[in-house]
């Protein structure tokens, strides 16, 4: 079953590569619980089929980096980029795309959370395994307020401009 507007996002574990060690966060991959991350916050989440892929790198992620201040001005606490890649890949992609302080690069390495959402994309026949569909969601205190799922091969409704108009 696919998650829909009004549903609470399932709990799960996402990992993030932490560049600078701080209290409670060690250098390298750190695991976070979705329920803890969303509690009391407004999250603009977008998911991509894969880090370093053409549309994701040229349009999807850069749009959210560019619109980060505008989204935060509209009450968004955090912007998340979620992909079925490991935390090391997401960290490297974030460094390349200069996301620090703007977009959290969260890994769902085994697609477990993505499957819980019902938004997985089977690309096994294309040699890419199970990935995430391309989508965006506005999550307020753990509840989906907006959900924009792209048609296969499209990039029309999950962009930063659409999310900005919905926040």
From TrEMBL:
- Please tell me one Gene Ontology term that the record gives under cellular component: cytoplasm
Check the record and name the InterPro entries matching this protein.
PRX5-like, Redoxin, Thioredoxin-like_sf, Thioredoxin_domain
EC no. given is: 1.11.1.27
User: Active-site residues?
Assistant: 56 (cysteine sulfenic acid (-soh) intermediate)
Q: Which top EC class is named for this enzyme in its record?
A: oxidoreductase
Task: Describe the location of the Thioredoxin domain by residue ranges.
Answer: 3-167
Q: Which GO terms describe its biological process?
A: cell redox homeostasis; cellular response to oxidative stress; hydrogen peroxide catabolic process
GO molecular function (one): thioredoxin peroxidase activity
Q: Name one Pfam family in it.
A: Redoxin
Q: Which reaction does it catalyse?
A: a hydroperoxide + 2 glutathione = an alcohol + glutathione disulfide + H2O
Tell me which family the UniProt entry assigns to this protein. Belongs to the peroxiredoxin family. Prx5 subfamily.
What is the documented function of this protein? Thiol-specific peroxidase that catalyzes the reduction of hydrogen peroxide and organic hydroperoxides to water and alcohols, respectively. Plays a role in cell protection against oxidative stress by detoxifying peroxides.
Q: What is this protein called?
A: Glutathione-dependent peroxiredoxin
Native source organism of the sequence = Achromobacter arsenitoxydans SY8
């Amino acid at each position: 079953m696919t998650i829909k507007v009004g549903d609470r996002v399932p709990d799960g574990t996402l990992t993030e590569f932490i560049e600078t060690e701080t209290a409670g966060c060690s250098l390298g991959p750190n695991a976070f619980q979705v329920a803890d991350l969303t509690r009391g916050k407004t999250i603009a989440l977008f998911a991509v089929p894969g880090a370093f892929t053409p549309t994701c790198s040229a349009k999807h992620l850069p749009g959210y980096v560019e619109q980060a201040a505008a989204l935060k001005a509209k009450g968004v606490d955090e912007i998340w980029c979620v992909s079925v890649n490991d935390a090391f890949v997401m960290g490297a992609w974030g460094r390349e795309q200069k996301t620090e302080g703007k977009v959290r690069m969260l890994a769902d390495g085994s697609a477990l959370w993505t499957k819980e959402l019902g938004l997985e994309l089977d690309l096994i026949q294309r040699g890419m395994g199970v990935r995430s569909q391309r989508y965006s969601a506005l999550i307020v205190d753990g509840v989906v307020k907006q959900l924009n799922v792209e048609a296969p091969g499209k990039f029309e409704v999950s962009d930063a401009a659409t999310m900005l108009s919905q926040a």
